[in-house]
Design goal:
Blueprint (H helix, E strand, L loop, with lengths): L4 H6 L1 H16 L3 H5 L4 E8 L2 E8 L2 E8 L6 E9 L4 E8 L2 E8 L5 E7 L2 E4 L7
């Protein structure tokens, strides 16, 4: 508690702002370092057991499925499909994440999905172009 003594003098709102700012700075980094996928996260689908993220960079889409219980080995799946083209899947028993799964899809629509344990979901076709 002594660490934050100076923050108490600022008031609750300022302390929260100061702490949030330090968290953002500490959490700053590249998307690739955080996810295994390069580029910008353009969609997240949450499920009870984890989440499935879609990233985009220079015509390439990338999917990674992440567990909410890291360290516990579960059946995990990450998949990505290009409309009229290829479907790529990573599936296995993993402790942290499945993927990354990447496909070039400039000018095309994609859909993606994933699974952690027995819970999964998939997207509709989208992110065209």
């Amino acid at each position: 508690m002594k660490k934050f003594k100076g923050l108490r003098k600022l008031g609750v709102g300022a302390a929260v702002t100061a702490l949030a700012g330090s968290t953002l700075i500490a959490g700053a980094g590249t998307a690739q370092a955080a996810s295994g996928c390069p580029g910008t996260r353009i969609e997240r689908m949450s499920i009870d057991t984890g989440w499935i993220d879609l990233y985009y960079s220079n015509g390439t889409n990338c999917v990674i499925t992440t567990s909410r219980t890291p360290g516990v080995k579960l059946k995990m799946v990450a998949w990505l499909e290009v409309l009229g083209g290829t479907r790529k899947t990573d599936s296995g028993y993993y402790s942290y994440y499945a993927g990354p799964v990447s496909l070039y899809a400039a000018g095309a629509c994609v859909r993606f999905g994933g699974q952690v344990g027995v819970v999964g979901t998939d997207s509709d076709w989208g992110h065209c172009g």
